[in-house]
C-alpha cells in the first residue's frame, strides 16, 4: 500500500468526487425511504460507489486504468486495506453493470436485493476514507496557496 504523502494529489478532483459520492449515496438512501423503484436506487447507488472509489484513488494518487469496478478495485486495493467480502462484492457489480467496458458493454437488470447490496457497499467504502489524511492534504493545500499568495 502507498502511504506516501509526497504524491501529488489533485485535491479539487478528490473533493468533487468525494462530495458527489456522498450526495449520490444520500440520494439513493432517500429513494429507499420514499419507496422508489429498486432499479433507480441501484443506479444512483452505483454512481455513488463509483465516485467513492474514484475519490479513494485520487486521495492516494493512484488512478485506475478504467472506471469499471474491477479496474477501480485493482487501484483501490493498492492504497487501502479492504475487507475481502467488500472487495469481492464490488467486483461482482461488473456482472450487472458493465457499462464502462469497451470490450464487454452490458447493463443487466438488477434485482431488488442488488440495490440493498450496493447501498451496503457504499457504506463500507465510505468508512475507508482516512479523515486525518484528508485533513492533512487540505491543510497542506491551504498552506501552499497562502505561501504562493505571499510570494507575489
Could you say how many structural domains there are in total? 1
Mean pLDDT: 87
The count of strands amounts to 2
- End-to-end distance, in Å? 38 Å
The name of the CATH architecture is Up-down Bundle
Overall structural class, as computed from helix and strand content, comes to mainly alpha
Proportion of residues in β-strands: under 5%
Please mark out the parts with pLDDT under 50 across 5 or more consecutive residues, or reply none: 1-5
Q: Could you spell the SSE succession in H and E letters?
A: HHHHEEHH
Give the CATH level 1 class. Answer: Mainly Alpha
CATH superfamily: Nucleotidyltransferases  domain 2
List the strand order in the largest sheet. 1-2
What is the approximate shape? globular
Q: Major β-sheet, in short?
A: 2 strands, antiparallel
Q: C-alpha Rg, in Å?
A: 17 Å
Q: Could you estimate the helical fraction of the residues in percent?
A: 55-70%
Distinct helical segment count: 6
Task: Classify the fold: give the CATH topology.
Answer: Four Helix Bundle (Hemerythrin (Met), subunit A)
